[in-house]
Design brief:
16 helices; 54% helix; single chain; 587 residues; alpha/beta; Rossmann fold; two-stranded antiparallel ribbon
């Protein structure tokens, strides 16, 4: 990349980041139809609750607005609920969207041992708005929850002021939730809508039908049919859509039907049908598109930024080039090796994620952020396993720098290399933090893959990022060793075509084994097998597989530029640490 294009690329990507941030900000406000206010309250027991309030900018309802409490799933935040938040607020609702304990910007710790406090947090948020906002009804309200949030929504039946309508999506089904009994019969909850995807990994359509049978008292029920009456609170409906658990809350059908249900339940059928926007009139997709552009441009901006930093450094401060000497392997043999190591890595990932989550549920954590413990264990276990397979197939590498040097000299050189590898990563850290601060403080929007710089648990998440960066370093160091031997990372590329071929090769070698294991889990699931909690971990493998594909590209591109194993591994470890520490809940 010539000197001028690298600066031009960084400028263009910066413009895309800024404009897509504005796009998300504008869409979140219904393209001018909605106001958004972030609020923090402290309950009488000292627990702090963070939430956002969405309202129509111009009040035309003619009466206090019905309130709707929206509750996200585990490992998510109130941002997940943006589709329903926007569309409900555009249709004369006051929407209260809460960050559950430990999620989003919440400074509390999430634990199933104090789960009813989590439920009370959400309840206190909506009651605070109802009690203090004269434009919001103090008595008429509904609740909508996804996944874990659906279970929280069902437990609102235990509160003193019960909701007049309930929507549960991809969770909260059956007669108990996490060992807690749910009030489910022909009259409670009032006006209940049940929704899930045909391909939901955690909630089967059959369980949704069973829940509808219990709620109606009927043995013969069907989806898409309204049972009971809105006027006496006995209305029930099941909505199924062609989606999976991850995408239910942004699914067009589920969003439309949820808005329709809450409108009919809380505003009245005639009022909702005659005096509100058609449910097909939606704008939330602009926020989804803007968020995708925002995250993509942010990740792409790291390459010209790294290149600018690297070329500005004097040679004595640049990361040391790796000089491993190893025996080349044929293309077909290299692919077989990657399939073996990749499949083994995926099986270990699945197993150790399962173990890590069990440890978290038991209160045993290495890093106090969800999945931090599991990833730490995975990194430390996969390192010796991968080293063994690499040495067995390629021989024990001997670097030119090691020849003729004793142990103390090797340690000194390793520390020096770590420090030099860290230097070009520092501007990236500053870049990500700066954009995160600007977007969060000016637009109230956190950009994906950036540190959380405005949070009640800022210090804890920052320290978790540092710890995770170090514990993830072994994982990505063996990744560089692996990919260098099968696609040639440090050898770089000679043309755009060469780079493209190597990029495809890096993704194939990295993800082929993962794909086999994911297919081995999803094929029985799609055939109707119920795999229980295994599918929860399998569901997590999908977004993490995407992340591993991105780190493979970073390994190829940054490694080809710097020729350094350590610098490449350090950058990947930091980026994944940021994503884990800033995205998942505090435990």
């Amino acid at each position: 990349m010539a000197r001028e294009p690298r600066y031009l690329a960084l400028f263009i990507l910066s413009v895309i980041i800024a404009s897509s941030t504005y796009m998300v900000w504008s869409a979140e406000r219904g393209l001018g139809e909605v106001t958004v206010v972030n609020i923090q309250i402290t309950r009488t027991n000292g627990r702090v609750v963070d939430f956002s309030v969405y309202k129509p900018r111009i009040l035309t309802y003619g009466a206090p607005l019905p309130a709707v409490l929206t509750i996200h799933g585990i490992s998510a935040s109130r941002a997940e609920m943006l589709p329903v938040n926007i569309e409900l607020a555009r249709r004369n609702f006051t929407v209260v969207s809460v960050d559950l304990a430990g999620h989003g910007v919440s400074s509390e710790t999430f634990s199933f041992g104090t789960f009813m406090e989590v439920v009370s947090d959400a309840y206190e948020a909506v009651r605070y708005v109802q009690s203090n906002d004269p434009d919001t009804s103090n008595s008429t309200w509904g609740v909508l929850g996804h996944s874990l949030g659906a279970g929280v929504a069902m437990l609102m039946q235990n509160m003193s002021v019960q909701p007049n309508a309930t929507v549960i999506i991809g969770g909260g089904m059956g007669e108990n939730f996490g060992g807690l009994s749910l009030s489910l019969n022909q009259t409670h909850p009032h006006n209940l809508m049940i929704a899930c995807g045909f391909y939901d990994e955690l909630v089967s359509p059959e369980l949704a039908y069973t829940t509808l049978r219990i709620a109606t008292g009927l043995s013969d029920v069907s989806s898409g049919t309204i049972y009971g009456s809105f006027s006496d609170g006995s209305a029930r409906k099941l909505v199924l859509s062609f989606t999976n658990h991850l995408f239910e809350i942004s699914d067009v059908t589920i969003v439309m039907q949820s808005v329709d249900w809450l409108g009919r339940s809380l505003q009245g059928v005639s009022q909702f049908e005659q005096h509100t926007l058609p449910i097909s009139n939606q704008v939330y997709q602009y926020a989804d598109i803007g968020g995708l552009l925002q995250a993509s441009a942010m990740l792409l901006s790291l390459f010209p930024l790294y290149l600018i930093t690297y070329t500005k450094l004097p040679p004595r401060l640049r990361p040391r080039a790796s000089t491993d000497m190893w025996t080349p392997m044929g293309r077909s043999k290299a692919l077989r090796f990657s399939l073996l190591l990749g499949s083994l890595s995926a099986v270990m990932f699945l197993s150790l994620m399962f173990i890590g989550l069990i440890m978290e549920f038991a209160g045993i954590v290495i890093v106090p952020v969800s999945f931090g413990t599991a990833f730490t264990i995975f990194s430390l276990v996969i390192f010796p396993v991968a080293i063994y397979f690499i040495r067995r197939n390629f021989g024990r590498p001997q670097t030119q720098s090691e020849i003729g040097h004793g142990f103390q000299m090797q340690v000194k050189r390793a520390l020096d290399n770590f420090a030099r590898s860290l230097i070009p990563v520092v501007p990236i850290i500053v870049w990500l933090c700066a954009w995160s601060y600007l977007s969060s403080s000016l637009a109230g929007i956190k950009i994906s893959a950036t540190p959380q710089v405005i949070s009640g648990a800022l210090l804890l998440r920052a320290l978790s990022t540092v710890v995770l960066t170090m514990t993830l370093l072994p994982l990505f160091y063996v990744d560089v060793l692996w990919l260098d031997r099968v696609v040639g990372v440090v050898s770089g590329w000679t043309s755009f075509l060469s780079l493209s071929k190597k990029s495809v090769g890096a993704i194939v070698h990295k993800l082929a084994g993962f794909g086999i294991v994911i297919a081995a889990l999803y094929l029985p699931f799609l055939a109707g097998a119920q795999l229980g909690f295994v599918m929860f971990v399998a569901l997590l493998m999908l977004p993490f597989a995407v992340l591993f594909g991105l780190t493979a590209l970073i390994t190829l591109w940054v490694g080809g530029l710097s020729k350094s194993y350590m610098s490449t591994a350090l950058l990947n470890a930091f980026l994944l640490a940021v994503i884990i520490a800033s995205t998942f809940q505090i435990v």
